[in-house]
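JOB MANIFEST
job_type = single_chain_structure
chain_count = 1
residues = 285
[input]
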Amino acid sequence: MKLTLAYSPCPNDTFAFHAMVHSLVDCEGLTFDVNLLDIDTLNISSAEGIYDICKLSYHAYYHLLDKYIMLRSGSALGYNNGPLLVAKKGSPLFLENGGIDLEQLSRSVTAIPGEKTTAALLLKIFFPEIKKTEPLVFSEIEDAILTGRYSNGVLIHESRFTYQEKGLCKIADLGDLWQKKFSLPIPLGGIAIRRSIDSQIQQRVNRIIKRSIEFAFQNPHFSVEYSKFHAREMETKVLQKHIKLFVNQYSIDISDEGKKAVEALFRSTSEIFPLSHNKESLFIL
């Protein structure tokens, strides 16, 4: 049986999926038609239910509960790995006393890595005064701020490792704000499967993904090479930091703590957006 599978070319995804898409682990008779797309494209295309299995931002997932259910394996979840709101060094947004000019921030247009990303959601939760946002491909946000197209923006993925050396400064760590409020890991994204697929197949896919991640941890040199191939000329050191930060024990299994974090983010989302579906069975059993 062949299933369509969509995930991003970011190192955490390619590291996790390498073994299963190359049949290095037992795939229990399943094969996969692989599509690599940036996270915003994944979030948008999944609204049409195009893919059988799809990496989604948790924010996007909450709007698609009628179409998808989340697997227990494959999530990007953790501590100290959240999105960063940044501006150019010397920006008038930074006050002389070390504070932030919130009035000016509220009047500015903030670059975000997609409307349905968890990064955009966290920005709404912690900076409700920011009303104007504009989505860009996440990899373009640093340069868009540095060239003055935007006064500030939200960084995700490997940009959190490079922004300072490029001349950007942190306004706020949105992940840190989340952790201080909820004392839970930050649920960034996960692997969802269409609800219409038989539950036994869903369980089979979950086992395969778990097996693939465990293989990557046990044989990192194999999976890192695959990640390098798709990593947009990313420095090896940055790539390894990226993988270490976003692939962890929650990726192998979401755990009860992880589920609590996902439910807490769902509640926060429902306070901001009118969700047409309830949160029954956010994860496969």
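[summary]
Residues 216 and 222 are 7 Å apart (CA to CA).
DSSP finds 13 helices and eleven strands in the chain.
exit_status = 0
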